[in-house]
Structure formats: structure tokens, C-alpha cells
Amino acid sequence: MYTAAGLAILITMVLAITRTLLGPTVYDRILAVNMFGTKTVLIIAVIAFMSGRTDLLDIALAYALINFIGIVAVLKFFEYGEFSRGGRGRP
Question: Of 18, 19, 50, 52, which cross-links 32 as Cys (Cβ 3.0–4.6 Å)?
Fold first, then answer.
């Protein structure tokens, strides 16, 4: 069961990489990278349950948090062109 789930996750990761390379807009590519990060968290969880090492779930949660913060930062950069709202000459 876990092997089938792991294989399905790996297939969707390959599809996400394909979407990242072929996406017509930058937002499609960011969405595909976010999906790849989410699938990475899932594959770490599947490996944790297959090996019986539940301490890997902490690593998966930390990776999910890093993925979320990274995607928010990249989207903010593409929206505003900078990471801070108060640049030179702005209130």
C-alpha cells in the first residue's frame, strides 16, 4: 500500500517538474514548485511510515513550513518587486 502511494507521489512530482519547465506564466511555475514541495513532504511521510521511523515526520513538518514561507516570499517579490514595502522614498 505504501509502495503504491510512494509511486503515485513520485509520478505527480515528475508532472510538477514538467509543469515548472513548461508553465506559460510565472504563477503557473510557482504553483508547480509549491506542489513539488508539498509532494516532497508527502514522500517523506510515506518513507517515515515504511521504515517505522516516525521522527522523520518532524523533518516533513519543518520542510512544509519552509516551503510555505518560501512560496509566500517569492510571490511577494513578484507582486511588489521587493521584499519590504517601505523602500527609499516611500512612506
Answer: 19
Domain segments of the chain: what residues? 2-80
Give the residue among 76, 43, 63 at the shortest CA–CA distance from 85: 76
pLDDT tens profile 30-79: 999 999 999 999 999 999 999 999 899 999 999 999 999 999 999 888 88
Rounded CA-CA distance 9/3 in Å is: 10
pTM of the model as a whole? 0.81
Residue 7's alpha-carbon distances to 29, 31, 43, 44, 62, in angstroms, are 23, 21, 9, 13, 23
